[in-house]
Amino acid sequence: MMYSETHFLFQAGNIKSIYKTGIRKAIVKSTLFLLFQTFVCNFCFSRVYSQLSPSDTITIHSKIFDAARKVIITKTSKIKINDTSNNCIIYMDADDRNINGIFLQSANNLMANKEIPPSYLVGIIHENRNTELLEKDKLLSFLKEELLPYLKENCSIGTPLTIAGHSFGGYFATYAFLKDNATYNACIAISPAYWPNKYEIINLFNKKQHAISGNFYLAVGDKRWDEISLREGIFKAKNILLKQKNIAFNFNDLRGFSHNATPTAGLALGLSSIYDKWEWANILEEQENRLKLFPGFWGHLEIKADALFHLNRMAQAKSFYQEALKNIPQDEKLSKPEIKEITKRLRTKIKHCRAK
């Protein structure tokens, strides 16, 4: 077939036109996609702290430091303003955007799922971080004598408190827990450096081990020297804490996490661990309500028994495990292998009740 020059010019013009149209469509499509992304991001970020009110940065004119000190206070929208027993968690390094963001996001998610109580989250902004955290008595005095009275008056917080920190912040949090256990009865120490001041913290652990009580969560990673070098001191502390009858202790070896990454997992795990009994009390209430709708269902009976077990109500836990075991055959949806597996699990849990 023969084509004229006019035909080729027409085809070239047509292709050019199609090309321009394609570009226009691509630009429109790209613009719409970017607008959609912006909407999604704004929507997501507007919900990031869905349980939390906007943070306030307050200034306290400190006589102890002879300077103005700033503190970030964030509260859940579910806080009871006139309640004098509001839960409060104090954390170090609030001036570090990564630490502050991870901590608030973790607390927000856990509060949204009723895994920790509605709380005031109080972040300490450091003026001279290393000096304040390692020469710790001045900061400890500031917290007790100046910050806590402010929080009690303006936020109606109760005591004792939870204190949390990472690295040198974990060192200070541990020191506060050991030195003033009546004020801080729960501690979250993520990758704490226990070597400063000639392992003073380990010596304090040995000295105070029979005089302290409460909850203690400890975590460490194993990647890169900054983290690996901390493990010796942390494992010394772990061995002491494991022997304490008056401390609910939990430890996580965060394999594969480097020093600056451990807060990503550790802070959430720590909060969950510290408030474990609070959550189980909620689960117990939740299962009691579900059993009103589904009386006799083995699944809700088992979870109710789990809650009772974790709340150290062993006789009741055993009774509900036995009731769940008795009601398994009524569930027609279960296969024989499933019945066998669930029966085995429940019998093991009943034995654990006897062992306790």
UniProtKB/TrEMBL annotation:
<keyword id="KW-0378">Hydrolase</keyword>
<dbReference type="InterPro" id="IPR050583">
    <property type="entry name" value="Mycobacterial_A85_antigen"/>
</dbReference>
<dbReference type="InterPro" id="IPR000801">
    <property type="entry name" value="Esterase-like"/>
</dbReference>
<dbReference type="InterPro" id="IPR029058">
    <property type="entry name" value="AB_hydrolase_fold"/>
</dbReference>
<protein>
    <submittedName>
        <fullName>Alpha/beta hydrolase-fold protein</fullName>
    </submittedName>
</protein>
<dbReference type="Pfam" id="PF00756">
    <property type="entry name" value="Esterase"/>
</dbReference>
<dbReference type="GO" id="GO:0016787">
    <property type="term" value="F:hydrolase activity"/>
</dbReference>
